[in-house]
Structures are given as structure tokens and as C-alpha cells.
Design goal:
With 78 residues, this protein is mainly α. It is built from three helices and no strands. Helices cover 72% and strands 0% of the residues. Helix 2 runs antiparallel to helix 3. It starts with a helix and ends in a 13-residue tail after the last helix. It catalyses: Exonucleolytic cleavage in either 5'- to 3'- or 3'- to 5'-direction to yield nucleoside 5'-phosphates.
């Protein structure tokens, strides 16, 4: 994962991921380019997942501090 990718916001990573998926869905991408897109997509997917997990951890901490809940879990996790 490049340092540049780590600096992406969740929204930026999702936008890039959506563009890659769109390109791959057309089926007009040469195999080598498709592999590169797939690899980049996996990196972006991990960035998004990590950011979501971080937010869930922060929310659980905030809610626990206020006695709201003891376990924060989102249905349909990524």
C-alpha cells in the first residue's frame, strides 16, 4: 500500500474503487491492465474497510463512555 493511498479519505477511496469497478465491468480491459486494476481495487477496498472499522471502534468507545451500549456492531459489514 503506497503512502499516497493511506492519505485518501473514505470518500476518495470509494470513488476510485467505483471507477475501477466500472472499468472492469465493461470487459474491454486487456488482461494485464485488468490485473493491475484488480490489485489497486483490493488495496482501496482494504483502505475503506480499515476506515470503517476505525469509525466503529471510535463509536463504540464514545457510546461506552456514555453508558449507551456495550457492543457496537453494524449489520451487513463490508
Amino acid at each position: 500500500m503506497t503512502e499516497k493511498n493511506m492519505e485518501l479519505s473514505f470518500e476518495e477511496a470509494m470513488e476510485k474503487l467505483e471507477k475501477i469497478v466500472g472499468k472492469l465491468e465493461t470487459g474491454d480491459v486487456p488482461l494485464e491492465q485488468a490485473i493491475d486494476y484488480y490489485q489497486e481495487g483490493m488495496i482501496l477496498s482494504k483502505i475503506c474497510s480499515d476506515k470503517i472499522n476505525s469509525v466503529q471502534d471510535k463509536m463504540a468507545k464514545i457510546l461506552n463512555e456514555h453508558g449507551e451500549i456495550t457492543n457496537f456492531d453494524v449489520e451487513g459489514e463490508v
